[in-house]
Amino acid sequence: MTRWPIPQPMQIALDAAHDAAQADEVPVGAAVVKNGEVIAVAANATRTPPDPTGHAEIRALREAATKLEDERLTGCDLYVTLEPCAMCAGAISHARIARLYYAASDPKGGAVEHGSRVFEQEQCLHRPEVYSGMGEGEAAELLKAFFKERRK
What we know:
With 152 residues, the chain is α/β, with parallel strands linked by helices.
């Protein structure tokens, strides 16, 4: 099996995931790219402050929308270290993200290729192109180590 280099935006998202783990947050990171430039980076922050919507994807989309002064992130790509949940997939659709790249699949909570498969629903307003697997090994290992440490 050929291992391709991890693109810079995914590496930036992985770095954000490491930062989340250091902050005792679930290690997920995201980066928004426009015209080849990373314009927003975020890590999960649901515990401090308590915010159930503080997923890395939501936080990165908010930051990008603020920078672009537009709720529609047309032409932007999103790199995230874990398959988005239903809430995040809905936000990705509403933001009109062009391409979604995610590292690790999430059979339990993911909603892109698992669960509700948000982008396949008739009611989905916008469907980004979806690419998975780049950086999967590092993202999955980071998540496994994080949860293993908490189960001791």
